[in-house]
C-alpha cells in the first residue's frame, strides 16, 4: 500500500517550507485515530477549514501504547494512515514516536495547531506552537464520540 500523503519528518519539513514560500496557511492536528468515527471526521474537517493545508500528526503504535495501554492501538500505524489518507480534509500524515507531538511541531512550525475542546487552549503544545509564531485553535468536539467509548460498547455486547 503506497501512501502518497504519508511523509517522513525530513519530507514534511521541506514541504512545509515550500508551502510557507507559497504563503499557504499550515494547520496541524494530532491524534491516534485508532477507530475513525464521526467525531474524528468533524474535528478534522473543522481543522482543515482553519487553513490551506492540514497535516495530521499521527501517534506511532509505540506512542499509543505508552498512554493508552498494551491493548491499543487496535489498528497499526499504516492502517490508520491508510484510512486517514482517504479523507479529503487530510493533506499530509506524519507519524511521531513520542507521547506528544512537540518535536514534530517544532519541525513543521504550523500557523495553527487544532486542539480539541477536551484539551483546550492551554494544552501542552501551546508553548511550542506559539514560540514558532503559531496559534492554538480550540475545536469544540461533538459529544458522544470516542474510540474508548466505542470499545466499551463493543465489550458490553452479549456474545452470541
What does it look like?
- The protein has seven helices and five strands.
- It is of the alpha/beta class and 160 residues long.
- The chain has one domain (9-156): HUPs (Rossmann fold).
- It has a five-stranded parallel sheet with strand order 3-2-1-4-5, sandwiched between helices.
- It is globular.
- 32% of the residues are buried.
How confident overall, as mean pLDDT?
92
CATH class bucket: Alpha Beta
Q: How big is the Rg?
A: 16 Å
The number of helical runs is: 7
What structural class should be given to the helix and strand makeup? alpha/beta
The rough form would be described as globular
Which regions have little confidence, pLDDT < 50, spanning 5+ residues? Answer: none
Give, in order, the helices and strands: HEHEHHEHEHEH
Strand content: 15-25%
Give the helix level as a range of percent: 40-55%
Largest sheet: spatial strand order: 3-2-1-4-5
Q: And the CATH topology?
A: Rossmann fold
Instruction: Provide the CATH superfamily.
Output: HUPs
CATH architecture: 3-Layer(aba) Sandwich
Could you tell me how far the N terminus lies from the C terminus, measured between alpha carbons in angstroms?
35 Å
The major pleated sheet works out as: 5 strands, parallel
**Overall strand count:** 5
Counting structural domains, the number is: 1
Amino acid at each position: 500500500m503506497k501512501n502518497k500523503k504519508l511523509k517522513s519528518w525530513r519530507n514534511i519539513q521541506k514541504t512545509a517550507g515550500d508551502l510557507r514560500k507559497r504563503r499557504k496557511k499550515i494547520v496541524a492536528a494530532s491524534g491516534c485515530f485508532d477507530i475513525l468515527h464521526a467525531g474524528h471526521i468533524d474535528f478534522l474537517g473543522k481543522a482543515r477549514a482553519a487553513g490551506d493545508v492540514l497535516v495530521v500528526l499521527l501517534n506511532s503504535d509505540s506512542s499509543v501504547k505508552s498512554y493508552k495501554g498494551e491493548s491499543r492501538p487496535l489498528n497499526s500505524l499504516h492502517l490508520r494512515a491508510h484510512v486517514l489518507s482517504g479523507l479529503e480534509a487530510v493533506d499530509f500524515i506524519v507519524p511521531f514516536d513520542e507521547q506528544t507531538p512537540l518535536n514534530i511541531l517544532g519541525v513543521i512550525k504550523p500557523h495553527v495547531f487544532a486542539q480539541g475542546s477536551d484539551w483546550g487552549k492551554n494544552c501542552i503544545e501551546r508553548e511550542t506552537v506559539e514560540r514558532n509564531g503559531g496559534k492554538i485553535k480550540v475545536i469544540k468536539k461533538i459529544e458522544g464520540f470516542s474510540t474508548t467509548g466505542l470499545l466499551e460498547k463493543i465489550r458490553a455486547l452479549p456474545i452470541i
